[in-house]
Amino acid sequence: MSYLQQIQQVSGLIEAKAAPWSGISPEAVARMRLQNRFRTGLDIARYTAAIMRRDMAAYDADPSKYTQSLGCWHGFIGQQKMISIKKHFGSTERRYLYLSGWMIAALRSEFGPLPDQSMHEKTSVPALIDELYTFLRQADARELGGLYRDIDAARTAGDAIREQQLIHAVDNYQTHVVPIIADIDAGFGNAEATYLLAKKMIEAGACALQIENQVSDEKQCGHQDGKVTVPHEDFLAKVRACRYAFLELGVDDGIIVTRTDSLGAGLTKQIAVSTTPGDLGDQYNSFLDCEEIAPADLNNGDVVLNRDGKLLRPKRLASNLFQFRAGTGEDRCVLDSITSLQNGADLLWIETEKPHVEQIAGMMDRIRAVIPDAKLVYNNSPSFNWTLNFRQQVFDAWSAEGRDVSAYNRARLMSVDYDGSDLADEADERIRTFQADGARRAGIFHHLITLPTYHTAALSTDNLAREYFGREGMLGYVKNVQREEIRQGIACVKHQNMSGSDIGDDHKEYFAGEAALKAGGAHNTMNQFGEAA
What is the rounded distance in angstroms from the CA atom of residue 501 to the CA atom of residue 314? Predict the structure, then answer.
């Protein structure tokens, strides 16, 4: 309902209750309802799933309409990101949040900082989703509260035109609530454990779950060594568990993102079950590094495979893990991706070792030959040395073209000595257009940076500590933080307003009328910032 319809509907309810409810303001109730548009996490999950489905269809029609997100490790960080997006671009369209398991492990575990190995508490994942949406909903309440105050000011001034403009703004208000793609790691256990955690994540508001094909109890960060994958059937059971969780909770449009780590994973813990030559288990086993043996060569405890009449012994490590043949990673990624899409996945995630459009496109071309509308979520990872990678890509391209690269040392291209050079400038331009190029050429629907706010928090804190505890003292804060907040229009300079003090004052007035003791009076020091923020 519109603002005025809400007031009218509540007025009828209050009139029906007569005198006992005479102290309730219909307009105040309408305002509170609009400030609390999403009553539950499931409301959010259904709303944001529909957004992602529309965005996926728009991308299929026009690859320039790709989507983006940044990883956020705290509700406040996610809130400030979305406030900034609305300030700078006027719309949250095609801009999401990402919830990284790595950042939960490093920053949100009661055990303290942990590596990305699924050792953190499962409950911390849905807890962060709930926290993010709590802060986004509060951003809505704060911004709408400002519109309500402006409506009241326009009425007091007798400006009916301005009042109608503001009511129109309320009726067409765009929420800060956007989709979250949430990392469920490898499921934290078996398929039942995956289902139970998925339900909690969806109930907290997640419309998209990202799950990877590593073994749960040996899970590693996608950019570290020692990754161990599982046979397809094991992984697909967890994909189905996620779908059942979505459907049970009535989020029929829920999105499942299946991630393959096979490009960098050279190990498996299990040999897949195979009953027919060429079946999925047989295809998985075909990548194992095996040696052909005769029956007489069998040792006690050997595991052997029978393929095409040959006896094959997979190479088993002291860790009891089996290794894949070198150079099979890309083929395994393609098989993983096609299999996932054929068994309920909506989007793919291929974890690569470097950001290279043609490498990604080479795999996606093969996948799309089977499933034409296959789409990727791609990790623009801080684990990549973007500067060095792209300078080396330009160096190699120039060398292939026969251009003179004698002025450059390929191994030292990270050096500041090359900043401002033609090669460095071209590399920076390729970095700038990487997302658009990847969306057009490599089927990348969604670009995300997993850990950006981990790094920005460290960098800004380092800069402040250097200045404040050094010779600059208080000027280190004022010059580099507060002055820039004011001049750049960072709303958080009014930190009391950001934390909800004005919302609280509004409620006090609703509840107690003129007797309300409000915090936002003339002596509130926040008034020193006026309208500058």
Answer: 65
At residue 293, what are phi and psi to the nearest 5 degrees?
A: -135, 165
Residues 51-63 have pLDDT tens digits of: 999 999 999 999 9
For 114-150, write each residue's pLDDT tens digit.
877 777 888 999 999 999 999 999 999 999 999 999 9
Tell me 213's DSSP state. Answer: S
What six digits make up the tokens of 114? 């942990």
* 317-318-319 Cα angle (round to 5): 85
Helix axes 26-35, 3-17, angle to 10 degrees: 130
> Alpha helix (H) ranges present in 90-177?
101-107, 124-156, 160-171
**How many C-beta atoms lie closer than 10 Å to residue 398's C-beta?**
16
Question: DSSP 3-state assignment of 452?
Answer: helix
Q: Which amino acid is at 490?
A: I
Contact 349, 259 (CB under 8 A): yes
CB 255 within 8 A of CB 346: yes
Phi, psi of 46 (to 5 degrees): -65, -45
pLDDT band of 283, cuts 50, 70, 90: very high
Confidence of residue 533 (pLDDT cuts 50, 70, 90): very low
Is residue 221 among the annotated active site residues?
yes
Percent residues over pLDDT 70 in the chain? 95
Q: Which of 72, 207, 221, 290 is catalytic?
A: 221
Asked if 290 and 324 count as a contact pair (C-beta separation under 8 A), the reply is no
Q: How confident is the model at residue 46 (pLDDT cuts 50, 70, 90)?
A: very high
Q: Give the H or E element holding residue 350.
A: strand 347-350
d(CA 312, CA 254): 43
Residues 6+ apart with CB under 8 A from 333: 260, 262, 263, 350, 363
Sole residue written with tokens 């026969």? 402
Q: Angle at CA 466, nearest 5°, toward 465 and 471?
A: 115
Measured CA to CA, the distance from residue 240 to residue 132 in angstroms comes to 26
Give me the amino acid identity at 94.
Answer: R
CB–CB of 122/188 below 8 Å? yes
Q: Which two tokens stand for residue 326?
A: 């070198």
Helix axes 422-432, 434-441, angle to 10 degrees: 60
- How does pLDDT run across 10-30, given as a tens digit for each residue? 999 999 999 999 999 999 999
Using alpha carbons only, give the angle 416, 419, 424 rounded to the nearest 5 degrees: 125
The percentage of the chain sitting over the pLDDT mark of 90, rounded to a whole number, equals 83
Q: What is the pLDDT of residues 353-362, one digit of tens each?
A: 999 999 999 9
